[in-house]
Design goal:
Number of strands of chain A: 0
Order of helices and strands of chain B: HHH
Oligomer: heterodimer
Radius of gyration of chain B: 14 Å
Shape of chain B: elongated
Structural class of chain A: mainly alpha
Chain lengths: 291, 81
């Protein structure tokens, strides 16, 4: 009887060991390199969205703090990834490295937008300072990744489609102006201040396009495939949650998706950089003066 | 450099020509910058020359440093005005 009981216990232990191994196997299957890339990108994306929801609906400071935490986490993650030897030979290494190089810039874009103390400066030059910070960020990422402006997508293929895309910024800006509330820049008086503020706002739009479509979308597409296009569109439209309007968010998402698909198919950023610049300038400065 | 910047940031943030919220967010920006600069110092001191550089830090620090300089300059200019 004792022998039978001990054999039964032994069989039970064996079964437990087998099932444990199966569970570990299932977990191991989930942590395959392809899934690791997906999980990492999704985790950063969800954290970014939570930070934006906090800025819009809970507390501005709490959202900014979360952006700062994500930024520091991404940088630490990037440093660890850079020094990992086991991943170096894997195909995911380069894609993840590009993603981790570009990601802090997305959080920095947001922090620079809400955190710089520009209230006491002239209204016209405020966008220029934000654009300068973003441009320095883009140049730094390009230098750190050993990429050229051509790699970013700023090269000259056929001019006509890109110019047409750029001109689409005019009607898109008009719709955006009708959807959003009036901006402070619409109160600017005098031709020179209007032209200066329109040019500087256009620079912010162009810089945002370089950050999101030029750098981040490319890195996300490397890991997620075509899903990277809508993923980046959601991220770039997320700051519009601050307007607390579903229509503004949806409109921003659709424009970002249109720009993303354009860049994905044509591998050229010129058209959307012009379009976003024109959209931002007309929405904030030109249309408020004309209408 | 980090400690000098910390002192500068503390002095700049101690001025109150701006609202409380923007001051706290500036403090967050400054904290991020100081953490990253400290991280770079650690890498420089712990690793031999070829490994002491980090591409991620090199990409992130310049725009943050510029943002920090803008914060300090604007706040000091407000004080002197």
């Amino acid at each position: 009887l004792r022998a039978a009981i001990s054999r039964r216990e032994e069989v039970g232990r064996l079964w437990a060991a087998i099932s444990r191994r199966q569970e570990v196997g299932r977990l191991w299957a989930w942590s395959r390199p392809e899934n690791l890339g997906l999980i990492t990108v999704a985790a950063y994306g969800i954290a970014f969205l939570i930070a934006e929801i906090m800025i819009a609906y809970v507390n501005l400071v709490a959202g900014a703090a979360l952006h700062a935490i994500i930024l520091i986490t991404a940088v630490q993650h990037g440093i660890l990834w850079e020094r990992s030897r086991s991943w170096r030979r894997h195909g995911l290494y380069g894609d993840m490295m590009s993603f981790l190089l570009c990601w802090p810039l997305a959080d920095l874009t947001r922090l620079a937008g809400i955190g710089l103390p520009l209230d006491h400066l002239a209204l016209e030059i405020r966008p220029g300072i934000v654009a300068l910070v973003l441009e320095v960020g883009v140049v730094s990422v390009l230098r750190a990744s050993a990429l050229s402006w051509e790699d970013l997508g700023l090269w000259h293929p056929e001019a006509r489609p890109e110019l047409l895309m750029g001109a689409a910024g005019l009607p898109l800006g008009l719709i955006a102006f009708m959807l959003t509330s009036r901006s402070d820049l619409g109160q600017t008086r005098g031709l020179v201040p209007i032209v200066v503020s329109a040019a500087l706002v256009a620079c912010v739009g162009a810089a945002e396009e370089m950050v999101f479509r030029g750098l981040l979308q490319k890195a996300c597409v490397g890991i997620l495939g075509w899903v990277g296009v809508p993923f980046t569109a959601v991220l770039s439209a997320a700051p519009l949650l601050s307007d607390r309007s579903v229509w503004v968010f949806l409109y921003g998402f659709l424009i970002a998706l249109l720009f993303g698909l354009w860049v994905y198919r044509r591998r050229n950023l010129m058209g959307v950089v012009i379009a976003h610049g024109v959209l931002a300038a007309t929405m904030s400065v030109i249309w408020p003066h004309l209408l | 450099m980090s400690s000098t910047l910390t002192i500068l940031v503390q002095h700049a943030l101690a001025l109150h020509p701006f609202g409380k919220t923007i001051t706290v967010i500036d403090g967050i920006l400054a904290t991020v910058l100081i953490v990253l600069l400290s991280e770079r110092e650690v890498l420089h001191s712990r690793f031999p020359r070829p490994h002491s550089q980090s591409r991620v830090l090199n990409a992130t620090i310049p725009p943050l440093l510029l943002a920090g300089v803008i914060v300090i300059t604007v706040r000091l200019a407000e004080l002197l005005r």
